[in-house]
Structures are given as C-alpha cells and as structure tokens.
Amino acid sequence: MERRPFGTTGMELPEICFGTMRYAAKTPGDDAPSRAGQRALEEALDLGIDFVHSSYEYGTRWMTGKVLAGHPHRDRVRHAIKVNVPDWGEPKFDPAAFRRQVEDALRDLHADRIDVVQHLQRGGIERLLGYDDRAEPQRVADLDAVLEPLREVAQRLRDEGLIGALTTFPYTVGYARAAIASGAFDGIVAYFNLLETEMVEVFDLMRDQGMGFIGIRPLMGGLLTDARIDRAALPPGDRMHDAGWDRAYDHLAAARAIVDPEVGEGGTARSWTSYALKFSLIDPLIASTVVSINTPEQLLEVVAALEGARPDPALLPRLHEVTARFRAEHGVRADGAGVPQYER
Predict the structure, then answer these.
(1) Which residues have a Cβ under 8 Å from the Cβ of 259 and sit 6 or more positions away?
(2) Distance from CA of residue 296 to its chain's centroid?
C-alpha cells in the first residue's frame, strides 16, 4: 500500500483508510456480517492498510477493539476519530467533553495515541439545518468562540502524547476558509469524490499553510460503483431509485461527458469503482481516502482498484467546473442524498 505525507505533520498515511461505519453490528455479537467485518480489518492490516477511522457514533468500535486487543502490530496502527464538541443542543465548547471522547477512544481501541482528531462543530445550529450553506454563517460565527478552548485542550493532549494532528470536518467551503485562516488546524477531513469536489477551492490555501487533507466518501454511498452507476439497470427496490438520489444522478450525467472516456478500454481505469477510487487521490495534497470496507471481498476490490495508471490531475478543475455549474443552475448540493439545500 502506497503512503503519502499528511501536510507537514511528519506523518505518512496509507492511501486507503479503513472506514468502520458499517462493518459490524451496533452491539457486540456473533453475527455473520460482523465476522466478515472482522476478517476484513484483519486482512487490511496484513496488507498495510494500518490507518483506521472510527467514531463513537458508529457503534462499531467494539469490533475494532476486539481485533486490535491482541494484534501483534497494533502499535503501528494510526487512528483517526471524529469528535463532536459541541454536539447538537450544546451551546458551548466543553474541553472536558473533548478530552473524554479522546480518552474513551484510546481505551476502546487499545491505543496509546490518536493520530488524527477530526473535530466537528455541531452546537449553535438547528439539527434540521444540518451542515449545508444555510447553516454556514452561524457555524462560522460560532467558530470564534470554539477556537481558544479547542486550541488549549488539544495542546494539552498533544503535550501528554495522546493526540497528533488536529483537523476540522468543515462540510462547507466557507467554514473551511475560516478554519484555515484561524491557523488552529493541521488539516481538513471532508467529502471528496467525482461529484463532491468543492474542497478543491481551498487546496492551494492548505498547501500554503502546510496542511494535509483526508477525503471521505470516495464512492458517494455506492453511486460511483459498477453496481450502481447505471440507474436504469438497478433492480426494483434498490435504494438508489429513491427520489432523494435524483439530483445526484443528474449531476453524474453532467460529469460523464468528461469521465466516460477515462473508464473502460483505452481509459485509465477498467471500471467505475476503480476510477472513482483513483480519482479520490488525484491531488498530491490528499494523503488518504476513507473507504467503508465491510467484507474481505470488498477489501480486495479496493486494493485492486488502485492498480495501474492514475487520472490526469488536469481533470480535477474540469470536473469541479461541472460541480460549480450544476450547483449554480439547480441550487443544490450533490451530497449523498442529492437533497436540494433549500429543502433540507
């Protein structure tokens, strides 16, 4: 597994980060999907995918802890965790809550250090707004109140050797710009795929500050895979037939004029799954991409997908032009559900 630098932190990360959102049941048990997830993580570690993303919200950390408890190389594993402070309904940043989430993760993962803390600020906004552009002014305004106590508790945890890089999960470009300008973060963790290219607008700002980037959702919830790229061929009842995905498929149609020549014979990838995963690493700033891997078969598909030629970086600005134009024309953010911003 190839490794890439994460900004100027000194860390080198494998191109694939093992995502644990759905790889096991929410509660400990001996069910078949959880056993498959266990084997997938064990085999990933054997292949050099020793970077693992988790969150207490996922409810699957028990399995990660089970795998790592007696693993002979668990000291080599790098961890990224999501920390939500302040959370929904919480008016202020609570340093004790931040520390508690870090310490809980260290205990559950049998780890000595969390290498990447992915901070997500939820407090101060209505839950129904989510994180889209309507909530951005409030979230940016609230960032000022969060920064000083966040810096202080993060530095204490660093001094104790418990965490490494502090990153932000900004959701919107405006929040990302504010976070970069603050100088408080070592990097950004954000959605990045063929249809969610918004963060490219701040890549140069990040480079100038020596920041790193980790992408999430490279396959856009399964849409950018061979199994679901052709909506008309999906069987009745497939979740991608839901109206919430209409906008995403419309966006995909607009992007395919650029991407289609890259997939198949004569292109840089033999399949859509392969191309989407390669694209998620198209810029050198991107250290790693978080892929939800639930079975050993998926793991092998992901590893094989990265073999061969990579997309030309010149395609990134072209695809981002499609994204910007699509959003301007339709007033939507092409996220995992394709939901119009103004209807969220």
Answers:
(1) 194, 275, 315, 319
(2) 21
pLDDT digit string, tens, across residues 178-221: 999 999 999 999 999 999 999 999 999 999 999 999 999 999 99
What CATH number was assigned to the domain covering residues 3-227+271-312?
Answer: 3.20.20.100
Distance CA 47, CA 17 (A): 12
Close Cβ partners of 8 (under 8 Å, ≥ 6 residues apart) = 210, 211, 212
**What Å distances lie between residue 107 and 43, 54, 96, 100, 149, CA to CA?**
23, 13, 16, 10, 24
Encoded tokens for 178: 């504010």
Write a three-state SS string for the chain: CCEEECCCCCCEEECEEEECCCCCCCCCCCCHHHHHHHHHHHHHHHCCCCEEEECHHHCCHHHHHHHHHCCCCHHHCEEEEEEECCCCCCCCCCHHHHHHHHHHHHHHCCCCCEEEEEEECCCCCCHHHCCCCCCHHHHHHHHHHHHHHHHHHHHHHHHCCCEEEEEECCCCHHHHHHHHHHCCCCEEEEECCCCCCHHHHHHHHHHHCCCEEEEECCCHHHCCCCCCCCHHHCCCCCHHHCHHHHHHHHHHHHHHHHHHHHECCCCCECCHHHHHHHHCCCCCCEEEEEEECCCHHHHHHHHHHCCCCCCCCCHHHHHHHHHHHHHHHHCECCCCCCCEHHHC
What distance in Å separates the CA atoms of residue 339 and residue 17, rounded to the nearest whole number? 27
Angle at 23 between CA 29 and CA 250, to 5 degrees: 140
Bridge partners of 167? 118, 187
The pLDDT tens digits for 35-47 are 999 999 999 999 9
b/e map of 138-166 (b: 16 or more CB within 10 Å)?
ebbebbebbbeebeebbeebeeeebbbbb
d(CA 274, CA 270): 7
pTM above 0.90, yes or no: yes
